[in-house]
Amino acid sequence: MGWKKAELIKVTGLYLLIIPFLNILNATGYESSQIQGHFGASSVEFMYINLIPVFSLVAGLPLALELSKKFPLKSMMLSITIISIILNTCSAFATSIVWFTIWRSLLAFFSIFGIVAALIPIVLLYNPTLNMAIMYGIIQFILQGSSNLYKFLGAHFANIYNWRTSLLMLNINFFLCILLTFVFIRKDVALGKQPFQFDFKGWGFLILFLLPLLFIAAEGQNREWFSDSKIMLAVALWLVIIGCYIFYAINTKNPIISFEVFKHNNVVLGTLFFFLIGLANGTGSVIMAYMAGLLGFNDLYIAHTHLYIFLGLVISIPVCTYMMYHKVYLSVAAIIGFFAFSLYHLLMYFRFYPGISEDDFALPLVIKGIGIGFLYLLSALYISENVPKQLSTSRMMSGILARIVFATIIGGSVLSTFMANTTVLHKTGIGQQLTAGNEAAAQKYSNTKSYYLLKGLKPTEAGKMADNPLQAEMAEPATLLTYKDIYLVMAAVSFIPILLILFLRIGRRPLERIEVEPLPL
């Protein structure tokens, strides 16, 4: 491909610069209980701790992209790395839940500058030397692979002492970035030649757009959704903000998110793909709850599951990159990716039973990694086809909002509510079998009630106490049935896009031209 050895070493060093900035929120991925316990946070407060940094990253992304063009590249990388070390250390030693959230949110925002500072010289090196499919493939491999490895390593570092250890170990990465910056970023020049122009009004609308969604995601389940007046008010306010922004964007020359981008059919379908991928990948939280809550696996084993996913990525991303580079039809990669997710959910459907061993999760999670590799790379390429550079931010934000905000965050909150309601229904169904004809249940109820009557409780109180053990025994099978329902539904949801691709003849062509920068978020 015309690459010299020195160029290959340089681009490798630049890729290493990106990795810690991509994973600032992953280092403590499995230490939620430690952090929540340390700050004494309620479940709702802890939801805010997790969500505010993510929303800060999404909200700050357009501004960071524009500002990054005005700073000298080397100075920006060094400054952002030092700022990241300071903010990360402050979050590790935060004195309260509020300050911990503030430091983490600022760290998430500034991480975008580090990503862009390393990505810009990579883009310059690849164009026109290499096909864009190869660059997207390598970036997606680093993004997806490093996120799984950081969650795995973060759990092990936290096991050394506590969750602070994982954060402080991240500082070692940032110190390494300082060294890499001096070696691989030689020119200290700003790349943006045009005067600074930014749609601050549109950015304000974006922040207002996200605020009600933050409230809904954090408290929707706790407030029982639309039965709560404040949730209904938040939804109404969100719809008003959308309406105001549509009016604003139509009458503005260069809005922060231009609806012109949706004239490209691939952006519309690519956004839908990102949403479906977010839904399909979001069921991973169910597996963690199952392993920890019902099977009793420890954090270190659960963290090992990311190695199985990583193995799937090692298989799928190079294969998908090869297919895109050699002009294999897009539909082929899409069908493979969605089929892998369908098979993963179907295999997991048969694994929700007590006593399952740890090794039984290996194959499904490898298949999940294959699905992630094909679909994330394909979607990133597909949504970027033939999009003019001036619409790059609009294209990127549509995919990010679809996958991260609506599918992962809002979808995860809805999924939690669905699980709780479905579990109650299954408990009711199981409870209907605890009749007088069920001799074992009846005998247990009678013995327990007699025990509490002998203790001096009234008959009604003794009856309630006798009912509690039966309710506890029903919780596990009801939860397992709920998990099976979810994964059976998701197997069908993951298979539906295959039928649409086949019958609507979507993607029966090779990859087309890409000009926009592949920001890996």
TrEMBL record:
Assigned keywords, A-Z: Membrane, Transmembrane, Transmembrane helix, Transport
Gene3D superfamilies membership: MFS general substrate transporter like domains
Residues forming coiled coils: none
Pfam families: MFS_1
Ranges annotated as spanning the membrane: 7-26, 46-65, 77-100, 106-126, 133-153, 165-186, 198-218, 230-250, 271-295, 301-321, 328-349, 361-379, 400-420, 486-504
Subcellular location field: Membrane
Membrane topology: Multi-pass membrane protein
GO MF: transmembrane transporter activity
InterPro entries: MFS, MFS_trans_sf
Keyword presence, Transport: yes
Predominant localisation class: membrane
Taxonomic lineage from the root: Bacteria, Pseudomonadati, Bacteroidota, Sphingobacteriia, Sphingobacteriales
Gene Ontology cellular-component annotations: membrane
Protein name per its UniProtKB record: MFS transporter
